[in-house]
Write a structure and sequence with these properties.
This protein is of the alpha/beta class. It has 2 domains: 83 residues, Winged helix-like DNA-binding domain superfamily/Winged helix DNA-binding domain (Arc Repressor Mutant, subunit A); 111 residues, Oxidized Rhodanese, domain 1 (3-Layer(aba) Sandwich), CATH 3.40.250.10. The strands form 3 sheets. The chain has a 5-stranded parallel beta sheet with strand order 4-9-8-5-7. The longest helix is centred in the N-terminal third of the chain and has 19 residues.
Length: 224
Amino acid sequence: MNKQLFNRKIYNEMADITRALGNSHRLEIMDLLSQGPSSVAYISENTSLTVANASQHLQVLKQAKLLETERKGKYVYYRLAGRHVFETWCALRKLGFSQNAEISRLVEDYRSKQHHLDIITKEELSDKMKGDDVIIIDVRPEEEYKIAHIAGALSFPLPDFHERINELPADKEIVAYCRGPLCVMADDAVDLLTRHGYKATRLEQGFPEWKANGLPVEPFEMKA
C-alpha cells in the first residue's frame, strides 16, 4: 500500500466517527450515556426517540466504535467505549459553545429566566464537602443516581421535588447537580428551592465532569 492509499484509508476510518457524531439524536444519546450504562428502553424513555429509532442510532455509534455493549440477564446495556470517548464528547460540546453563539444564547436565555441562579464550581464544592454545612442533591432520575453519583449526594429526582422539598434542612446550603452543562434539571431545582427560602446553588457542570476530574463518587467506574 502506497502512502496516498494509506492516508486515504486512515481518513476514511476517521470520517466514520465524525459521520456517527453528525446527528443531534446521537449527540443526545452520547450525553445520556455519559451518566453510565443504559438499556435501549431507558434511552428511548429519556429522549424523543422510539425504541426502534434509538436502537438504530445506537448501532451506528457502536459500529463507529464509540459504544460498547454488555448483557445483563435479558437486557443489553450500552456504554461509552472508554474515557477517551467521553473526553471527545466534552471537546465537541466545548467547540459548539465557542464557535456557535446560538448555543450559548439558548442556554443563557433559559438561565436568565431563572433569576440568575448562583453557580458553584466543582473545586468550590469539593472544598465545602470537608465541612458539614452543605447538602448535595442529585436531581437526575433515580436510575442514573443508582449507577453512580457524587459521594454523599442524596437522590432528589426533579419530578418528586414538590412532595419532598420539606425533607431538606433549611439551615444548610443546598447544591443541586444533574447531567452536565446542557442539563437544566438542576436549574429548575435551584429555582424552586430559592423560591421556598433555601440557600441553593447549582453545580457548574455535572456528574460526568465531576467524576472525570477524579473527585469522589459512588460506585460506577468508567473504563480507562
